[in-house]
Structures
1.
Amino acid sequence: MKFLRFFTPYEWFLLITIVSLNFVVFVVTGEWEALSTIATVSGVLCVVLVAKGHMSNYIFGLIQVSLYTYLSWGVGYWGEVALNGLYYVPMQFIGFFMWRKRRKTKTTVQSKVLTRPQRWLLFITCVVLILLGGLALDYFQDPAPYLDSTTTVLSVIAMFLMVKTYAEQWYLWITVNVATIIMWSMAYLREQEVGHLIIACMWGVYLLNSVHGLYLWKKAAKEAALTN
């Protein structure tokens, strides 16, 4: 019973949804991709725990990013490969130790927000880097250069904000989720690979969680500001 109460009804909805989507894809297509299923379920567990500010998210995050690197390699999304393999994997360890320094309780952290000038700087930096990244990926014949650049650049910055416990990370995650859903849907239409459809479904659940996470982290940051 304690385990059941650990997640809120909405969080259970997200977890049940990703498991159900995997099952539906299997029934409709008659195919099951084990690595995609493990990656999607562990990924949703990770982001749900991030939204809760719970440090155990890094365990499931390490599983997800490792498998996602392999799956992205197979599609040729080199921005995603570099992002997950070279950045996300080591950041799971860095993030864990950074969160330990900002613990509110034994297992959760306290969120904070950027100032207005910092938000403008964040916006300008994101736009410039996305454009430059898109040009570079287009040169290397990436099938979706600007979408890949958007997900890569914003994910790098969002992960940094996450490690530093800033609530604004969720605005970037929402954008990343939308772009990545489009990207993996395009991959499925090109190759008709069931694993790509499962990954797209995972990012759809990520999107729902990001909206939920934004609400929770902004609320927690306001409460922290009132008590300080």
Note: The chain has a mean pLDDT of 84.
2.
Amino acid sequence: MPSATDRPALAQSPAGHGRLVWGLLIILALIWGSSFILMKRGLFHEGRPVLNGWQMASARLLIAWLALIPWALRHIGQLQRHWLPLLGTGLLGNGIPAFLYAMAQTRINSSLSGMLNSLTPLFTLVVGLAVFGTRVRAVQVAGVLVGLAGAIGLVALDARTGTFTWSPFAILPIIGTFCYGCSANIVKH
């Protein structure tokens, strides 16, 4: 474990720590938010299909696998010891959602898909309570309920007409966020 003197000076000062946290948050938001747009770009070009959902998801998983192979080889001993939670996290945090989101985006907007992703904290909370016995604070419940109300509005209302509508393909990202909630709890516990 590195000592305090081994860490960069930026991370040691309170102001520097705040800038680092905000910088990382912005980078994460750009990467995570752009993934929905990039999926749509891979699925369609000028309105015509390029890849189907299975191909898009497979390509994303292959690229991630290639990027992580050096790390996996370096830590092969830990992989052998912790294979079951890693398998669960891999399937629920990456594998299954990749296919669900790619299939959904063949029929719904990438913005809706990205916004439905906001249900992840709800499912993390529910799975944590139901399966892992996680303790919850009232502020967490309030935040999750606000997110749930927004997600219901996104799924139920047509943005163009303001009327109630329903797309069964909106269920796929919701199932994906449930998988993310399970994965987050596996990682935590």
Note: Residues 37-188 form one domain.
